[in-house]
Request: fold
Amino acid sequence: MSREIKIKQDNVPHCPVCNSVLDAHTGTDGTSVLPMDGDASICFNCVTVLAYEITSDGIGVRIPTEEEQKAFDADKDISRIVEIMKQVKNSDQGMP
Ligand SMILES: [Zn+2]
Reply:
């Protein structure tokens, strides 16, 4: 079973930092959980920690607010995932 949740193709969000298309996401615990507004999201291309933005138009991502950024910086799980993603990205194999 896929762990990815597709986002509507007519409203595909892009990373506000590197402009990569962000058309799917995967939860960190392997379950299919829909994100809540303000939850952390990490771009697979530039490994920037972003914030989900849930609106009536659908799911998007944005640069975190100052308060959200402080919470993300203090979250050890997010820091660990970012470090792993950077290591994978810098390895010969790249991101899956
Ligand atoms: Zn990016």
